[in-house]
Amino acid sequence: MKKLLVLVCFLLMACSARQTYADESPFTIDNWRIAVENRNAQRYELAYHYYSVALSSARTQAVILRLKSEMEALERTIQAVR
């Protein structure tokens, strides 16, 4: 009986460990990552596009403000390059 109880507890712990709760959608995070990669590679206009796609799917106010801030900085960079 003890072995069965230990097994059930182990299975319940394994199931709960697999669930992750994120405030942001994976779509937002993936597009944000691509935007940063493009910005670092000096592909600024492509980076701007991915920032705007990430912003369109952002859920939390903190992420929205951060993306807007990064986009404004990128706009200044684009203007300086031109």
Report on this structure:
With 82 residues, the chain is an all-alpha fold. The chain has one domain (23-81). Helices cover 80% and strands 0% of the residues. Helix 2 (26-40) packs antiparallel against helix 3 and helix 3 (44-56) packs antiparallel against helix 4. The longest helix has 21 residues, at 61-81. It is elongated. Residues 17-21 have low confidence and may be disordered.
Based on CA inertia axes, which overall geometry fits? elongated
- Beta-strand portion reads under 5%
**Rg calculated over all Cα atoms:** 20 Å
Number of strands: 0
The overall pLDDT average reads 85
Order of helices and strands: HHHH
Class based on secondary structure composition and strand pairing: mainly alpha
- Stretches where pLDDT is under 50 for at least 5 consecutive residues are 17-21
Number of domains: 1
Helical residue percent band: over 70%
Compute the number of helices: 4
Largest sheet: none
Seen as an oligomer or otherwise, the chain set is single chain
Cα end-to-end separation? 74 Å
Question: What's the topology here?
Answer:
Layout: H1 2-18, H2 26-40, H3 44-56, H4 61-81
Helix pairs in contact: 2-3, 3-4
Keywords summarizing the entry:
mainly alpha, 0% strand, 82 residues, elongated
